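Risk register update: the risk of archive-format incompatibility is retired. Evidence:
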Amino acid sequence: MNGLPRRLWLSHLRLSVVLNASSPIRRWSVAESFRYRYRCTVLGHLLMTIGAVCSAQTALPNQLDLRAAYCRGHLAEEIRFFQSFEDLYRNPPVGPPAMERYNVILDGLKRSALRLDRYLMPRTHYLDMDGLALAAISGKEDHQLARDEVGKCLGREGCIPGAKNWESCHEACVKKSPVMQRTARCKDLSFLPN
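Archived output:
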């Protein structure tokens, strides 16, 4: 009984008798057996090849994915830019209020970058990475271009940081720069799904 309980063994025996009685017993010749194994092997290899090709195909990123990658590249450069001023803000003449404002801005940038990462990371498994990488590189390059354009504009207009007209002068320069307008869209991440 092969270690099976008697009741289970009897039901297995009945089932095998019924199955064998309903289908004629067929004995294969050696040639038929070889052909069957060969066909199964070829079919198995074909299915594995098709499965590998289909799983390797990736979808193109949509506008939302590209914008998120662009903003992620821009924010990486913005964080690096702000962190370069950390020593300046840590000096005693600046004072605690400026340091607190610096920390708030830097924390906000890091939270935005984390939110973009949480959106993009699960999509990297099935999206074409070339498009996302190019968008991120474009965001990094635009960050530097925007800084250069606004710096030149501020110099032309005679804007001095800390002066009374600083905010209005800075805003006027930002509005004149098409690159700065592109990067400014990364401040509002409401385009991302919740």
